[in-house]
Amino acid sequence: MKLLKTLIITASFVSLVSCQTFDPYTGEQKTSNATKYGLGAAIVCGLIGAGESGKHARNAAAGCGAIGAGIGAYMDSQESQLRKTLLNSGVQVKREGDNIRLVMPEKITFDTNRSDLRVSFMDVLDSVILVLRKYPDTVLKVVGHTDSVGSDSYNLDLSERRANSVASYLITKGISPRRIQAYGAGEGFPVATNETELGRSMNRRVELSIAPVRN
User: Fold this and answer.
1) Which residues contact 16 (CB under 8 A, 6 or more apart)?
2) In CATH, which superfamily holds the domain spanning 89-212?
3) Which secondary structure element, helix H or strand E, spans residue 29, and what is its range?
4) Residue 145: its H or E element
5) pLDDT one-digit tens code per residue, 129-147
6) Which band of pLDDT confidence, cut at 50, 70 and 90, is reported for residue 84?
7) Quick one: average pLDDT of 76-89?
8) How far apart are CA 83 and CA 92, in angstroms?
9) Is the pLDDT assigned to residue 189 strictly greater than 90?
């Protein structure tokens, strides 16, 4: 049995190394999340299976197959489509574990101190919506952010209105409101200094987080 466990771990490590791929967006070697989750499950499940026999081993294998094949591959595919769709749009696509976060700066979203969507931004959102429709087993969180210019209360209100504008547009285009949460964070979560115009422009943004539904 010890030999079998050793062979499982060794084979899984070799598979992990062989599944390294070149990421055309970053120029780095990358292992897909589906591969990482799948191989992780394979190691754990292989060890479980090595200690089982007959019906128990078959049940363990069936359950572990579902773990390896599900969320990682689903989100990998969605991330890939979003990156292709949003290339050169000004939207940043960030992967954070099982979640995907779209960072949409003010320069492509809203005019200064306004909360009505720019027409050009609607086109960007339409591209996002096409992908969201293909992957309905996700929930969405829209968060508005501002810089520190102006009062706290004004910035909080503006960020809420901007987040709600994005959420409302998604809903009018057929995305279920049950999938969406929207709120404003005001100036509370800067990603850059508010001491420079460049930094303030980076802080004025809307973020759309996409997370898998977990049953």
Assistant:
1) 31, 35, 36, 39
2) OmpA-like domain (3.30.1330.60)
3) strand 29-30
4) strand 138-145
5) 999 999 999 999 999 999 9
6) very high
7) 98
8) 9
9) yes
**What is the C-alpha separation between 162 and 117, in angstroms, rounded?**
8
CA dihedral 25, 30, 36, 39 (to 10 degrees): 130
What values do phi and psi take at 142, rounded to 5? Answer: -105, 125
Residue boundaries of the structural domains of the chain: 2-69, 89-212
- Transcribe 115-138 into DSSP letters: -SPPHHHHHHHHHHHHHHHH--SE
Burial class from Cβ neighbours inside 10 Å (0-12, 13-18, 19+) for residue 6 reads: exposed
d(CA 78, CA 196): 35
Strands 138-145 and 180-184 come out as parallel
Q: Which long-range contacts (CB under 8 A, 24 or more apart) does 157-163 make?
A: 157/184, 158/113, 158/115, 158/184, 158/186, 159/184, 159/185, 159/186, 160/184, 161/115, 162/109, 162/110, 162/115, 162/206, 163/206
